[in-house]
Amino acid sequence: MSAAQSQTLVSKLEALQCHFTWDLDIRTSLLNHRRDNLEDIGTNDGNRWLGHIYNLRGFIQYKLASNEDAQKFFNKATEAFSRIRSADEGPWLVVNYGNLAWLHHHLGDQAESEAYLSKVDALNKKYPSLSQEELHPEIYAEKAYALMTVSGDKTLVADYFQSAIEMHPGIREWNTSHALALMYASKHSRTGLEDDILEKMRIAQEQDPENLYLAAHYLDQRAQRGERIEVEALEAQREEEETQPEEVAAGPSEATTGDASPTAYPSIWKEEQYEQFKQKNEWMYAHNGRLGCTPCHDVKDLGVMASRGVNIAIQWADGKIIPAGQSSDVQLSSLRKKIREHKNSAAHNEAVKIIQTANKDILLNMNASSEESVFESTAKVFMTAYYVAKNNKPFTDFEILIDLQHANSADLGRVLHRKTVCVDIIEHVSSQMKKELLKKIIETKSKITVLADESTSVGHKSTLIVFLKASVDGDMEPIAFPLDLVELDSMSAAHIKEQIMGCLLKNGFTVELLREILIGFCSDGASVMLGVKSGVGKLLQDDFPGIILWHCLNHRLDLAVDQALDVTGGTKDFQAFMDSLYSLYSQSPKNMRQLSEFAHNLDIALRRIGKVFSVRWVASSWRAVSAVWQSYPALAQHFREPSEDDTRDSRERAKFKGLLSKLSSINFLKSLALMADVLTELKNFSEILQNRKTTLPKAHDIMTTYVKCIESFNRYPGQHAVDASQAKEVMEFKGEDLRVGRSPIIDSAQFIRAVADNMKERLFTTKANRAQASVAANRKEAYNSLINQMAVFNPDNWDHDNPRFGDNEVRALCDVLHVNQQ
């Protein structure tokens, strides 16, 4: 196709009326949400909008770059229109064919695109609009539906439906949607819903009585005007029941259906007379030539509501009233008198009141039962979403769990089953939980500590996550929960402090309250956070004197390990080799697949090899070292095969040969064993520190224990070091030959001593960032004071001979934590 022809085709496509040319608000961020909403609408054949739904779903799938699904839905729309309209073609296909023309154009099938353009032209000629300035009513209706479904301008939606109805009145679903669009457009109006719109809703509701959505909005609008909807609903229900008097009269066991026959009412009456009496006395029924009273039949016994001398007339209740006398005049007069007397009787009127009350109670009970059922099913959905969040499950599990509960016959309703809804539910639940926690903290004036950590988002935007830790009441352990995620425009300490204060004030705290309950601030050791002169902690301490500034223990542990690596020989070479392994397998799926095959053949559970000593927590370094230790034979075989493969180029063979030489070196194995032993203990220590139940006195004891444990490796080698020594004796490890090699080896004694010394230096203090000697000494003194003051709460330390044991320590701790000593 030439450039001119292509330009002509595009011009024709742009002139079409279809989803591709309409200005629909389907932003990328909303595509999945719009798709899920359309899926929830359903696709049963009774839906008159089914073809329009498929058209819109097809367009959304195109926007999601799923062209195959888009074409499938466009074809479904064609089939749906033909089935619903009972015709193979019609103006309702103009939009559908336009969509298909655009789709094939984007797919590069210009011939098929031109074929659909020809179909559109043929339809426009066969079913022209009433005016050249106006669209066809079918196009107006579909454009309005698309806009309404994607939350477009409701006033414009109403105008489009109005245009369609003016040109082609009498389409029920158009009138219904037009009324709803007018209501939506007026929802935020200061004057409220206008009378003419309410009248349109009434007419639409009469034309479309099965549309419960419209009926609910119509009743709601009337209720807002002060109308008593319940009374009207009861009267409508009663009128419907009384359209079949014989069925009511006969009772539950002997009901008859159909209109009154000559044998149903007394033979003295003509049908016209019976209808006249029935119209004046709605409570009356006729059966087998006799008359009866429906309320009295239903009540039978007035029970405790009966007045003295007032009882149900059994003959009226049982439907046994017949005319008295011989002549027709006497019989007619007799029936009129009996009807009049019964109508005015106290028993009859009491029975009517009972029926009215019962019907009202039934309706209310039905509503209450329906609401309770909806509440229970919604609660089950919420609990499912809570389970997903609580157990760190992916959102996709939500739909699977819903299906599982359906299979187990649990009633979870028909809506709120999409994974996007799960996100909304979790966000709602978490926000409500946070509100309740903050409310209790503020009401009880519980002591709080602020925890803050800076990070960078995917968009390279600096953010600050703010946590609170508090004991909400005296019975529960302290809990830490995220308060807010704050974007930072600047990384200065003053700006970060301002954002933290703004976050606290926004969530209900006041400066006066914070002076009373804020006892600590915790973060990493960055100078901007805990700098001695102008860090965030120092600025907060200026406003709230006496708060404890705390450097996160896990950060300090990593700093201790990093510093030990810097002063120990051989660690750089070890880290470089581990990084090369990470690059080899993280950047090449082919290499990872080949390694997996070797591991499978050796019955080895393969673990992911990550980086070492490059991320915050030592646990990640332990996982990387442990993965290499466990996968050692598979790695050796994977390196050996390509190093001996003549089909590979010399450079690649040399690379794998060098990796194999390094891996099989006894020096590397001993370094790997040392790291595995030390990092195993540090990983366990780190995880204990991360446990929310770990208190400061407990952490102090654990730190002391683990320092001794690390130091013991110099005298008592760990299990990995023992395995490496045994492998050196036989020069074989896990079936792979070892070699002496010349690669550097980590000085185990130096590394172990450096780790232990740095742990002692950095952990047993309040902060471990750089400071003058006097400042560092004050920090250690403050730390030791805290530990000594808290130690008096341990029963093992009590001096039972001294009744005033611990008084001074408790008073000092009360001053530190701003607690009333009384």
Topology at a glance:
Blueprint: H1 3-14, H2 31-41, H3 50-63, H4 67-85, H5 94-106, H6 110-126, H7 137-149, H8 154-167, H9 172-186, H10 195-207, H11 212-224, H12 229-242, H13 245-250, H14 271-280, E1 284-287, E2 290-293, H15 294-299, H16 314-317, H17 328-343, H18 346-390, H19 396-407, H20 419-444, E3 448-456, E4 462-470, E5 479-487, H21 493-506, H22 511-517, E6 518-523, H23 527-530, H24 536-543, E7 548-551, H25 553-567, H26 571-586, H27 589-601, H28 618-630, H29 632-643, H30 650-663, H31 666-690, H32 696-712, H33 719-730, E8 732-733, E9 736-737, H34 748-763, H35 773-791, H36 807-817
Parallel strand pairs: 3-6, 6-7
Antiparallel strand pairs: 1-2, 3-4, 4-5, 8-9
Helix pairs in contact: 2-3, 3-4, 4-5, 5-6, 7-8, 8-9, 9-10, 10-11, 18-19, 18-20, 21-24, 25-34, 27-29, 28-31, 29-30, 31-32, 31-33, 32-34, 35-36
Question: What is the helix fraction of residues, given as a range?
Answer: 55-70%
Task: Summarize the main sheet.
Answer: 5 strands, mixed
Question: Structural class from helices and strands?
Answer: mainly alpha
The number of helical segments is 36
| Oligomer status | single chain
Principal-axis shape: extended
Task: Report the strand count.
Answer: 9
Residues in β-strands, percent: 5-15%
Question: Runs with pLDDT <50, length 5+?
Answer: 231-262, 304-308
Radius of gyration: 41 Å
Average pLDDT across residues?
A: 82
User: CA-to-CA gap between the ends?
Assistant: 92 Å
